[in-house]
Amino acid sequence: MHEHKCYLDKTINRKTLAADFLTNEKYIAKAVHEGAGTTFHEYINSLRLAYACDLLSDLAGNDLIVKIADESGFSNRFSFYRHFVAKYGISPTEFREMKKK
């Protein structure tokens, strides 16, 4: 998952991942729960948010937040913003500004 960055694919879900690994959805859900201690959806979003933080921390980059949301695999900027604030307690813009200091 990390190596191939399949979490950046907006269409990824347990069904598509199970098909890629020639297994079933329940196995994927169980493996993620046992390995990460969370649901598949939460795990994917945590990987996406970590990737977004890398993009936001790139001091040379001035990409718009909407572009970072898209590149990180979120379906829209509202979903990205909601998940980001829920996890980090600050907005993506505030995070970027904090990293610039």
Overall number of domains? 1
Category from helices, strands and their pairing: mainly alpha
CATH fold group? Arc Repressor Mutant, subunit A
Number of continuous helical runs: 6
Q: Briefly, what CATH class? A: Mainly Alpha
> What is the arithmetic mean of pLDDT?
92
Helix content: 55-70%
Task: Please give the largest β-sheet.
Answer: none
Shape, principal axes of CA atoms: elongated
Note poorly predicted spans: none
Strand content: under 5%
Name given to the CATH architecture: Orthogonal Bundle
Number of strands: 0
What's the order of the H and E elements? HHHHHH
Which homologous superfamily in CATH is the superfamily?
Answer: Homeodomain-like
Computed over alpha carbons, the radius of gyration is 15 Å
- Please give the alpha-carbon distance between the first and last residues: 32 Å
Task: Explain how this protein is built.
With 101 residues, this protein is mainly α. The protein has a single domain (6-100), classed as Arc Repressor Mutant, subunit A, CATH 1.10.10. It is built from 6 helices and no strands. The chain starts with 13 loop residues before the first helix and ends with a helix.
Please write out the topology.
Elements lengths: L13 H7 L4 H12 L3 H18 L7 H7 L5 H12 L3 H9 L1
Key attributes of the depicted protein:
101 residues; mainly alpha; Arc Repressor Mutant, subunit A; 6 helices; elongated
Compose a concise summary of this entry.
By secondary structure, the protein is mainly α. It has helices spanning 14-20, 25-36, 40-57, 65-71, 77-88, 92-100.
